[in-house]
Task: inverse folding
């Protein structure tokens, strides 16, 4: 799934997020990748290395958390884990395969660890996207 | 060293434009459909037959995505109220931004339907929201009865699944029950219609569904 596009977006977003913090280098980036996005992690790592060259993210470790699927049945509301080995999204409660995906369908930039100019270490309060 | 919590959708750029498209299309009170399938499944032929059947009271526009050529747009130009050809070059799917740009050239207020014929590809289009109301997935008989399982993410997200070129069932080894078994596990929400643009089989069911969906979003 378009690992190069994802890699470019990750680099752009971490550089933008770093801009208020006098960052000299980004050492680690943590992302959540839902398994339903079918991202090939090896390809993403290679693409990221290439896209990060020459930026604050050059040399950063890209830590990928693979997020398992979670479905909410649209018929009875039950939340369950689809059985991807069986390609089954059948609800164990009502037997229908009519779901809203509430997990495993995301690609989320979770956090980054940065080195700064000489300044006291600080923890930035979480900023959630609205 | 410090850790910055970002918590941001990596695909936010496309998704934000898709959300804006969805708002614009909602205000226009038309039904926008994203047609997705492999190349050659019959998307353009289906539209050639569908649009006249929808009637002049429900004019249709089409956005056609292809890597190259304007052939599909030329086929549809005398049938649809408006046709916009989007050539993606090497892009293997349409993006929300491409759709947004195309929408600026349309008089949305006088349309009943907007058909977005995506690039022929069973993988990437499933992952890129364009702002459509409904996802239409086509599978044609010559492609084989194992494609639902092989490309399950596309079929799992479909709002309707059309088996096209069913006039060929008598000459090809295609087991509809295999497709139905796979769909029973993946997606029972989407109606499954067997149709032939050539013979007309199933077209009435498809047209009825389109009108019902349009009424639902108005």
Result:
């Amino acid at each position: 799934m378009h690992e190069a596009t994802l890699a470019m977006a990750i680099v752009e977003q971490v550089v933008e997020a770093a801009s208020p913090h006098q960052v000299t280098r980004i050492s680690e980036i943590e992302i959540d990748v839902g398994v339903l996005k079918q991202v090939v992690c090896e390809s993403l790592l290679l693409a990221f290395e290439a896209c990060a060259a020459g930026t604050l993210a050059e040399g950063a470790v890209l830590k990928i958390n693979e997020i398992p699927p979670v479905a909410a049945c649209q018929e009875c509301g039950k939340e369950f884990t689809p059985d991807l080995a069986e390609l089954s999204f059948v609800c164990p409660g009502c037997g229908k395969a009519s779901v809203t995906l509430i997990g495993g369908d995301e690609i989320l930039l979770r956090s980054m660890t940065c080195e700064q100019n000489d300044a006291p270490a600080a923890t930035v309060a979480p900023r959630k996207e609205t | 060293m410090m850790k910055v919590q970002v918590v941001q959708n990596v695909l936010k750029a496309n998704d934000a434009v898709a959300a804006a498209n969805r708002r614009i299309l909602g205000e226009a009170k038309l039904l926008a459909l994203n047609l997705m399938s492999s190349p050659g499944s019959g998307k353009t032929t289906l539209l050639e037959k569908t649009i006249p059947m929808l009637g002049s009271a429900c004019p249709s526009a089409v956005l056609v995505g292809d890597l190259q050529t304007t052939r599909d747009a030329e086929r549809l130009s005398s049938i649809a109220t408006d046709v916009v050809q989007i050539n993606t070059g090497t892009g293997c799917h349409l993006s929300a931004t491409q759709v947004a740009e195309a929408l600026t050239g349309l008089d949305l207020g006088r349309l009943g339907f907007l058909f977005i014929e995506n690039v022929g590809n069973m993988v990437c289009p499933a992952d890129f929201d364009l702002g459509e109301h409904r996802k239409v997935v086509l599978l044609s008989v010559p492609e084989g009865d194992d494609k639902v399982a092989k490309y399950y993410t596309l079929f799992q997200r479909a709002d309707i699944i059309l088996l096209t070129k069913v006039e060929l069932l008598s000459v090809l080894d295609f087991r509809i029950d295999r497709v139905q078994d796979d769909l029973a596990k993946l997606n029972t929400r989407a109606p499954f219609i067997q149709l032939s643009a050539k013979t007309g089989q199933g077209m009435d069911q498809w047209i009825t569904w389109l009108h019902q969906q349009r009424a639902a979003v108005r």
Q: What stands out?
A: Chain B has a mean pLDDT of 94.
